[in-house]
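Data availability excerpt. The first of two example chains:
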Amino acid sequence: MVDRDRLFELWGRAASLSWPVAVQHAFTTLMRTVDIVVAGLFAPAYVTAIGLADLYGQIPLRVGLSLGTGAIAMSSQDTGRGAKLTRNRGITQAVLIGFLIGLPMVAVGLVLSDAAIAILGAEREVVRLGGTYLALIFAAAPMRIVGLVGSRSLQGTGDTVTPMVVNGGASVLNALATVTLALGVGPAPRLGIVGIGLATLLARIAEAGVIVAAIASRWTELAFARPRSLSITGQLLRISAPNFAEGMSTSLANFPFNSLLLVFGTEVNAAFHIGRRIYQQVAGPVYRAINTVTSILVGQALGEGDAAEARYIGFAMAALSIVTMGVMGAALVAGAAPIAGVFTDDAATLGYAIPFTQVFGVSMVFFGVFFPFAGGLRGAGETRIPFYARAIGSFVFMLGLSALLSVGLGWGVTGIYVGLVANYACWAVVAVAGFLWSDWAEKAAGLMEERADVAE
């Protein structure tokens, strides 16, 4: 028998934590959507250039998210057990490590950006545009990573409002600057793709600066503390490394996958990126909020020593997620045509963007399964299983099955649609199996015991 009072109390707590996260991600995806819409006003080559450059832009994003995953796991667990100084030392290390990792990316972007786009087999104009945009994105890498790690460190304490305000403000700044600088609104020069990239750079600098100031001030529960233990550093890296590999497995698979799309034309590639941008804008804020909040709640429950409650939270959040994402997926399938039409008026591109959007809509139910269970595992510090899920899905199904069906068996773009759905189904199956049968609760207990040896 389901204890409805307990369930609704949990969902209420989750809602209070998740709405700021959802709003934060809505602003973030809106920023990227504005980039795509503005690029589409120039030509399909601009959309493709941004899409290909974003493949490399995933590197600083993945570094920030992976260190942020380690930070949120340790922050939530240490908040649950009342170990504030250990928590503050851990998040300080995460921020410093992230900034240092981002510095070499600035140089790489300045020197190798054109070559990075050209190696994907893009047309000459796409290489020129994409290389220019990528150089600006990599220039923002250190600030991007710091902003991500700082936000997730705050979320681990249960403060989801401060990251929302900071990130939301930066995203609005980015969107306004993109329109102004790219299109030359008012007295601003018309900079095209340079304006789109420059807007992102300015917004990332602002975001990182405010997040660091918030942590250093009395506005938030967190504070910076001088690191004193390599054991905390080791834990942070052990938790973060599989998460980085998880994200990069998808990103690396996207390189040959985009080359596969380009076999069928620039319009097909642009259509895929439009479809992906649509589902990320519509559903992304919700499933990312569910993932983050499940991590927070599971981590804090484990910090309090209640593994049974942590397990209950995972299943309860999954039930809510499946229903929510199923409804949103149905809406995407039904509204694919008018929504895709906002992003392009090129008939050939639109003809593929509609079915790509519908494919992502069908896949939403699998997102509804994967993200809460993966979030629960990450909150425990178990980041290997989500990595296995996405690596297998990305290489075996998104890339391998898509190539086999579309080229090997001659199905064309339809084979790619099938491969995408199979990819997300794989994510869901592996995450459920990991949550049910792995020793994630015991692993979390071991990590906390190790940190308990660090003197407060």
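And the second chain:
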Amino acid sequence: MIKATIHTIGKSKETWLNDALSEYEKRLQGRVQIKWSLVSDDPELIKQTALEPYLIALDVQGSLLSSETLSQKLVQAGSRLAFVIGGASGLPPEILAKAKWRWSLSPLTFTHQMTRLILLEQLYRAYEIERKSPYHK
């Protein structure tokens, strides 16, 4: 089973978003165990990510990937992953320097709450691609 920790700033109060996140966590169940690390500021985010062995930074300056390429990269990355989503001003340089790779979801800007949902959907899609399921057509 893959263990993925998602580090991010702030909690989501939107019920619809929490429902959508729960739906994708449910879909990933049995294959990917999601652990949330919700912190209040950058210093705490730096501290929480310091010991992660395989950190992936979601960053606007990161690589744009196809879903197929993401699937391959995640399979190669192993069974213990950590993702980090920054706040309104992005990620601190200390985190960007530690990341194994930087991933840009899009040239568009998203709220960190929406980024959580897009991340979970893309994780689900990536592992469905690996399984050759009809989800990704």
